[in-house]
Fold this sequence. Notes:
Blueprint: E1 2-10, H1 15-29, E2 31-36, E3 40-42, E4 53-62, H2 66-79, E5 94-100, E6 105-107, E7 110-112, H3 121-131, H4 143-149, E8 156-158
Helix pairs in contact: 1-2, 3-4
Amino acid sequence: MNTIYLALGSNLGNPQLNLIAAIESISQSIGKVEKCSSVYKTAAWGNEDQDDFYNQVVLVKTLLKPIELMNCCQQIEKKLGRISKQKWAPRIIDIDILFYNQLIFNHKDLVIPHPLIQDRNFVLVPLSEISEGYIHPANNKTIFMLKNECQDKLSIVKLKPIQENK
């Protein structure tokens, strides 16, 4: 089994329900969801002129290979109603592959680890909550270290764990 970390984000419709639906779809088509972070309400990153995002990180065990995993994530996004592929646009759901085991993978359609992890508190804070000691395979720093070094100053507010909101 492969250990993967996925970042989930939503700022259209009912974001918390979108995250619940994404996690259910992930468990049905990708693998066993082992850990879920709390949900964090965060200011939009990149294109800040839009509604706040609800973000969460999940740890999943899967048999899928990296490209299969990417395709499956894109199918889930489409199934849940994601239309726009515009960079940093509002969206019903966004699923990013953060890590895949300790693999460093560079493909024209997919880079693992996700190249912007260290720049985004909306990823580092929930990721730290479930795996602060995980070592980033490309820079050999723990998630805890990356979170403490991150220069992202956008607001981030912890909400109740999504499981409590079902």
